[in-house]
Amino acid sequence: MTADTSLELFARCRDGDEAAAEEVFGRYLERLTRLARSRLSNRLRARIDPEDVVLSAYRSFFIRARDGRFDLSDGGDLWRLLAAITLHKLRRQAARHSAEKRAVGREVPFDAELIDPAMRADDAAVEESAALADELEAFLRELPEFDRRVIELRLQGATTSEIARDTGRSERTVRRALAAMRGRLESRLERDGGGRGIAVAEADRPRESAAREMRSGRVSSRRSSPRSTAEDPRMSLRFEDYTLRRMIGAGGMGKVYEARQHSRDRLVAVKFLRKEFLGHPRAVDRFVHEAGIVADLNHPHIIGVHGIGGTPGGGRFIAMDLIAGPDLSRFLGGVPAAIADAIEWTRQLANALVHAHAAGIVHCDLKPANLLRDASGRIVVTDFGLAQSAVADPESRLLAGGTPAYMAPEQIEPACGPIGPHTDIHGAGAVLFALLTGRPPYDGKRPADVFAQILAAHHAPSPSAIREGIPSELETICRRCLAPRIADRYETASELCDALVALN
Questions:
Q1: Quick one: 13 exposed, middle or buried, by C-beta within 10 A (0-12, 13-18, 19+)?
Q2: 416-420, long-range: CB within 8 Å, 24+ apart, which pairs?
Q3: pLDDT level of residue 502 (50, 70, 90 thresholds)
Q4: Helix or strand run (H / E) with residue 371
Q5: Which of 407, 410, 458 is nearest to 429 (CA)?
């Protein structure tokens, strides 16, 4: 790679060239992921996904590059810049996950969850808490390191003098930074139609008052009424019935919070559709579609959905069972599972697929990150956002999305066949492969590279080529699930389940 090539790519990214952005993504993705993984301890590796960190770093890079925030003079600067952003993201996540070691009376871990657990959902601040969290996340991503540190310390209740000592700046500089950021944030919220002003902290405000306000995420409203939304008959849950406690997960479409449902006196998981998708009817419909699909499925290995509701501010949320445990991707941290565990977890997955397929539902996005593990070792399938009907007319069915490394050929190229239960059989085989080897069956720097491997494969990949000691019968099961031709796979999830049971 020459310096000119690197600088040209950066310049094209800055100009919004999507092809250049894809090239930068593919060129450095693997190196950045290895870098992030190498900096994680074994303890944090089970809680932090290096790929999530890298994807977050890329989002920040592309946004800031288009805004003209970077100026590179040497080709090597592009790698150094991406590496610096990635390590900064990694440090922030590591600090957040280690927050319990800090002084309880002073620490409020910042991960966009500025919500007081004692506040009820009918408080004006909590009604828009998810939208506010998105705004704060985006705002902080764009700040220089000094400004971001000032805000983080203020959120933790630090005084102006304490922030000055921590950052090595004068109190006057800190006060000016707080005032400037308050104005920028208020302008941003007004520009985005929120009309909200956030009290970052005036210099003369008593510390206790400012810290209490920031810890609760309280906002002052310049408009007394929330933005109006049309009544949706699908919204059966009342937002006032829930108190948000903490954020427990986030994805491309939404964020998930632990919450208390007061009418049932129980803890649940509440998934919010991200604010930026609320104006897109197709995104809202897909979100509601997911809730409707899973609500009809009642099985111990499938996440239970209680219903869907809307917030007074126009948001959408799904209430689900709260599973007290990580997904398999985080639980394993890139390390292969024990053979017995891989067999048992895949058997439980197959058992869930038997039920879903009998109800006419194909998941279409099976992967370790979508399989939760509770304290008893039970596996629960979640995230049916890409699910499709198994009996729909192929001509009317959407071309399924998914996670590239776990997708079946028919999800990429319709000529390979229709999407159906056999698609989930392939997905189950991909999960089994990942459990046995610590990596997906297909790998590449770019989605296009992965797709090319999947479509060009004449034979299923072999997990024993990566890990020794895999029983031949288990290898046969895995490769049959992953067969490129639909006719060569197991016909049903029940047949797969029986094959796994026979190994014991």
A1: buried
A2: 416/455, 416/484, 416/486, 417/486, 418/394, 419/362, 419/364, 419/388, 419/394, 420/362, 420/390
A3: very high
A4: strand 371-373
A5: 407
Comparing C-alpha atoms, which of 343, 341, 342, 337 is closest to residue 500? 343
Q: Which helix (H) or strand (E) holds 264?
A: none
Contact criterion met (CB below 8 Å) for 294 and 305: yes
**Tens-digit pLDDT profile for residues 180-210:** 877 776 666 555 444 333 333 333 333 333 3
Instruction: Please list the active-site residues.
Output: 365
Could you tell me which residues are beta bridge partners of residue 371?
381
pLDDT interval class at 90 (50, 70, 90): confident
Instruction: Give the pairing type, strands 237-238 and 305-310.
Output: parallel
Count of H-run helices and E-run strands, the chain: 19, 12
Res. 336: pLDDT tops 80 = yes
pLDDT the model gives residue 233: 59
Token pair of 319 as six digits:
């209430």
Side chain identity at residue 299, one-letter code: H
| Distance linking the first and last C-alpha atoms of the chain | 52
pLDDT of residue 145: 80
What gap in Å lies between CA 298 and CA 397, rounded to an integer?
Answer: 25
More confident residue, 192 or 407: 407
- Tokens standing for residue 440: 């997906």
Cα gap 53→250, rounded to integer Å: 12
Give the pLDDT band of residue 396 (cuts 50, 70, 90): very low
How far apart are the C-alpha atoms of 317 and 21, rounded to whole Å? 32
The tokens describing 402, both together, are: 């998914």
Give Cα 305 to chain centroid, integer Å: 19
